[in-house]
Every structure is written in C-alpha cells, then in structure tokens.
Amino acid sequence: MNTAKLPAGVRLGVSPLSWTNDVLEELGGHIPLETCLSEAAGNGFSGIELGRKFPRKAEELKPLLDKHGLSLASGWYSGFLAEREVDAEMAEVRDHAVLLREMGTNVMVYGPVGRMAPGAALDLPMSNRVTLSIDEANVYADRLKEFDRRLEGEYGLKLAYHHHLMMVLETFDEVSRVIERARCGLLVDTGHAYAGGFDYQLLFERFGDLVTHIHLKDVRAERLAEVRSGDKTFNEAVRSGMFTVPGDGAVDFAPVADFVRKSGYRGWLIVEAEQDPTKPEAEPRAATARAFNHITSLF
User: More exposed terminus of the chain, fewer Cβ within 10 Å: N or C?
Assistant: First the structure.
C-alpha cells in the first residue's frame, strides 16, 4: 500500500485512538505502544498523532517513531482559553509546543476543554453541555486570535482549533461565530461535525483558507440516533461504537478529496476513531487498514 495518489504535500496519518483511548483507560489499555506503531506503519500510514502512551521527550520519541518510519503529525493540547488569559495559556502550552517543534511538527491540535460542564463532563448527558453567550464568544475569539499569532511566532506552529462534541463549539453556528472573528487555524473533524448536526463541507466552504488539519472520523448513524434520543453521555457514545473509521459509517468522505484537490491544502489527513478495540468491528489493524484503503481510493 502507498499514498502515491495523494497530492504533493498531503500526507495520510492515523490517530492512536484506534488502539488506546486517551480518556477511557480500559479501552486498549492492554495494547502496547509498539503494537500500535508497527500496525500503523504496516498499514501504510506515514504519520501518527500523540497518545497517552507516547514518551514526551523528543530524544525518546524520535528514535521510536523513526524505527517504524513514522512522522509525528501533531498532538492534542487541552486548552483553557474559554477561562483564562493568553499569557497563562502560553505558559501552560510551552512544554507541549517545544516537543512538537523538536519533532518537526508544524501544527498543534487545540482541544477546547475550558468551560465544560462541571465535574466529569464527558460522563454527563450531552444535553448538559455548556454554551457561550455572544459576549463570551467574542472574548474567546479574540483570545484565540492572539494565541494563534503567538504560537506561530514563538514556536513555528499553526493552530488547529478542534470543534468537538460536549465542548464550547459544537454546532456550525457556534463554530462559525468564533472562527469568523478569530480567523485562527481550524481543524475540520468530519465525525464531530456529523454528530454535531452539520455537514463538514460547510466549514470547507466558509473557512477553507483557515484549515490547517483534518481528522477523518466516521459515525454509525443508528448509534448516534440512540445516543441523542437517550441523551447519553459522550463516553457512553464512545463505548457504544458511535464513532468508527472512514468507510464503516454514514459520513461521505469524497468532499474531503475534492477540497484537498481544489484548495491547495497542504498538510495531514488523520484517520481517527474512538472505539473499543476488543470488539471485532473495531479490531485496530483491520479497521485502520480498511480506512487507509477507503481514503486512498478517493484520490
């Protein structure tokens, strides 16, 4: 397998979440990092994002990835700009940003965990999600804009803002209101858009020039319907198999290929799915191999 058909400057990577979940430690906790890396490389992927089992020092991480011919595509940073000022966020991000820079990465996934529902937010019904007022959204956007500028200026990293279920920007209107004002780098996540009730193509159409990273996640529509009708939690949704790899669900990925070909996008496409790797439908090596073939067939 190869990615020769991808446009120059576009690379296909994978998230370690198919092997080991970052939040639900019982999902894939038994799978060694070595297994994840060898299977990812064996399936043809050229890069991988950080996961909780990865070493966080470049002198340890680089030879580990080099051994498997993998590049570090990016890594999730849990951001709190919905709660704190930019100076505090810059101080908090330093170690993570330095690691990404030392690994030759040029984009940072920003996970907006500030202002989530109090307590264990991902274990609360999804109707309990906290939203921002217009004034709060404007303050948030201005902080993101400044953080984006400083992150690139100090570390050479592009911001990739990750819209996400149960976080402050879930719907298209919420994402649009903030990103239009912030004009910061945006991550388009196909699965979180679908589960958030909108077509991810709308983000390409409105903010295509701001897209710095793309997550390719699929959704099993019937399980999403059960989650929404039962007002289940995000973690229950993950355990139920609501998310899956491209080609196994209801999301159409052809528009991703169209956007990449026509927009001049240069960056990573990352196959990602939070699943229980012990379920036959989610066995990591087979599932990510199917996803690799599905995505490359579109180019």
Answer: N
What is the crossing angle of helices 172-182 and 134-155, to 10°?
50
8 Å CB contact between 265 and 205: no
pTM equals: 0.97
Angle, CA 82 vertex, CA 53 and CA 197 arms, to 5°: 80
Q: Cα separation of 12 and 253, whole Å?
A: 14
The series of mean pLDDT values per 10 residues for the chain, 299 residues long, is 77 98 94 98 98 97 98 98 98 98 98 89 94 97 98 98 97 98 98 98 98 98 98 97 98 98 96 96 98 97
Q: Distance between CA 110 and CA 161 in Å, rounded?
A: 5
DSSP string computed for 87-100:
HHHHHHHHHHHHHH
Distance CA 94, CA 21 (A): 24
Bridge partners (DSSP) of residue 79 are: 112
Q: How many CB atoms lie within 10 A of CB 30?
A: 10
Checking 51-54 for CB contacts under 8 A at 24+ apart, the result is: 51/15, 51/16, 51/17, 51/19, 51/20, 51/22, 52/20, 52/22, 53/16, 53/20, 54/16
Helix (H) or strand (E) holding 264: none
Asked whether 166 and 126 are in contact (CB, 8 A), the reply is yes
Residues 103 and 213: their CA atoms lie apart, in Å, by 17
